[in-house]
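Predict fold of Yip1 domain-containing protein; 193 aa.
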Amino acid sequence: MHKFINPFEIYSEKKLFWLGVGFGFIAALISSYSNLLIFGSLKVINNYHQTWYIAIFNLTLILVSNSLVLFVFGRLRYNKTRFIDVFNVVLIAHMAIYVLLFLTALPVVQNALIAIELEILDKGFAAPKLSKLHMFTIGIFGILTLSLIVYFFYLLIVGMIIAMNSKSKVDVFVIIVLVSIWNTLIQFLNPFI
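Predicted 3D structure, encoded as C-alpha cells:
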C-alpha cells in the first residue's frame, strides 16, 4: 500500500523513470486507438484522431513542458533540484491521468458520454433525459475522475517536496497553482498535432 502513497521513497530513480515511460507509452497507444487526447494534464477529450507516433509526441509535449515548469520552480526554491527527479515526479503523477484515460476509453463510459452529448445537442442543457444506466455510469465516472485528479496532485506534491527538499506549506499551494495555470495555458495555446 505504501507504494501508492509515496512511490518516490520506495523505488529507485531508474525504476521510476522506466515505469513512467512504459505507462506513458501504453497511454499513448490507448490515446491513439481510442481517439482520445490527454489535453493538458487535467483533461481528456474525445474524438481526437491521431496516429500512435503523434500520440506519443503529444504526450511527450505535456510531460516535458510540465517538467520544465516545475523544474524552474524547484531550482528557484532549492538550487540542487535535479531535472531527472522532477521528470520522474511528473511521469509517475501522470499515471493517475493514464487511468482516467483508460476509464474514458471503456465502451460503457463512451456510450454514456455519447448519450449525454446527443441529448444536449437535441434538447440543449435543459435537463437531459438519460437512462438509469447512463446516469449511474456518469456518476461513478465523475467520482473516479475527481479522485484521480486529486491523486494526481497528491503524487505531484509528494514527489516535488522530495525533489526540492522542501518543508514549506507554501510550496504545495504554488505547485498546484503552477500546474493548473500552465495546463490551462497549454489548452489555450493548443500545441497538439
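The longest strand covers residues 37-38.
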